[in-house]
Amino acid sequence: MTFKAEYIWIDGTEPTAKLRSKTRVLADGAELPIWGFDGSSTNQADGHSSDRVLKPVFTCPDPIRGGDNVLVLCEVLDIDMTPHRSNTRALLTEVAEKYADQESWFGIEQEYTFFKEGRPLGFPIGGFPAPQGGYYCGVGADEVFGREVVEKHLDLCLEAGLKISGINAEVMPGQWEFQVGPAGPVEVSDHMWVARWLLYRVAEDFGIAATLDPKPAKGDWNGAGAHTNFSTKAMRENYDAIIVACEALGEGDKPLEHVKQYGHGIEDRLTGHHETAPWNKFSYGVSDRGASVRIPWQVEVDKKGYIEDRRPNANVDPYVVTRLLVDTCCSALEKAGLV
Q1: Is 177 in a helix, a strand, or coil?
Q2: Per the omega criterion (within 30 degrees of 0), is the bond before 255 cis?
Q3: Rounded to whole angstroms, how far apart are CA atoms 98 and 125?
Q4: Partner of 284 for a Cys bridge, out of 45, 226, 293, 336, CB 3.0 to 4.6 A?
Q5: Are residues 195 and 76 in the same domain?
Q6: What is the pTM of this model?
Q7: What is the pLDDT of residues 277-325, one digit of tens each?
Q8: How many structural domains does the chain have?
Q9: Phi and psi based region of residue 99 (left: phi greater than 0; alpha: psi -120 to 50; beta: remaining)
Q10: Please, are residues 339 and 333 in contact by the beta-carbon 8 Å criterion?
């Protein structure tokens, strides 16, 4: 007897990486081996030396094929078994281990947009739908488009055992969101990448494309982000730690350092309009969706909790955003003696 293992990896396409996958048939009970692929076809190698290595790092049940079949998320290695330059997970692992004692938690809100026949789902041919306003968390065929895909995706993520925690329709027609977390930095990122793969894969079956474009429709339409909720043990117990983390994110060159790595096309989305702060101005505030970083109102009331970094694009690499937040905030909390 055999089972199918779908090896999934992140390629080297710039400025925004793509997901790739291929299937391996293995004998029942077999361990998942390392595997190779043609890196010259994924922007991860030159043709004269094209072999690259897939190292399994996270496995879950395959909810599409069912049975004993599995999804296998992999890191990309060079043939000397060191991390490939596109391997952002390896960089995160180092930082996560360094600050493991601070017990960082994340919840990432992944917005995305469905497209069909070259336009956002719900946009009429040659025109525009009614202005945004009624679509957010809407109900009814005139407000919501693509729900059957969204519900199927949610079911598949749950069957795979991913830490998906919710879904909702977003502000623009054909735009949706799912949330992953709470979980540690590596776990939330692994689960997010697999959830993205499942989104693209299930949308295939409906003849629909899902995109993480941060500004899928030009004009007076909301962009698509990946708002990232973050806390440490100290932040979950102490409001002073909340403020230290916010101040650290706004200190010196940190705002630009983060924004430059928060996803391609961020200037098109972070304009100061449509519930965003300008990309080149850092701010934080309580219950302020126009700030770079929002402190939820209940956090101020409870004097403990978490913060929401509202800057990351929908197309951000979760391994990168979690690494940056852990590194910046945890080092500041350590210096402040709040660990």
Answers
A1: strand
A2: no
A3: 53
A4: 293
A5: no
A6: 0.96
A7: 999 999 999 998 889 999 999 999 999 999 999 999 999 999 999 999 9
A8: 2
A9: alpha
A10: yes
Measured distance CA(62)–CA(69) in Å, rounded: 5
Rg of the chain on CA atoms, in Å = 20
Of 244, 243, 265, 252, nearest to 311 by C-alpha is 265
Q: At which residue do the structure tokens 């698509």 appear? A: 224
Residue 244 tokens, joined: 């230290």
Range of the domain at 54: 2-86
Whether 74 and 197 map to the same domain: the answer is no
pLDDT in tens, the chain (339 residues): 999 999 999 999 999 999 999 999 999 999 999 999 999 999 999 988 999 999 999 999 999 999 999 999 999 999 999 999 999 999 999 999 999 999 999 999 999 999 999 999 999 888 888 887 889 999 999 899 999 999 999 999 999 999 999 999 999 999 999 999 999 999 999 999 999 999 999 999 999 999 999 999 888 888 999 999 999 999 999 999 999 999 999 999 999 999 999 999 999 999 988 788 999 999 999 998 889 999 999 999 999 999 999 999 999 999 999 999 999 999 999 999 998
Amino acid making up residue 202: V
Count of CB atoms within 10 A of residue 227's CB?
A: 20
Task: Give the end of a domain, one of 69, 86, 103.
Answer: 86
Q: Do 272 and 178 share a domain, yes or no? A: yes
DSSP-derived 3-state class of residue 57: strand
Tokens of 67: 């049975």
DSSP 150-172: HHHHHHHHHHTT--EEEEEE-SS
- Regarding whether 127 and 63 lie in a shared domain, the answer is no
Whichever domain contains 81, its CATH number is 3.10.20.70
| 117 token code pair | 């026949």
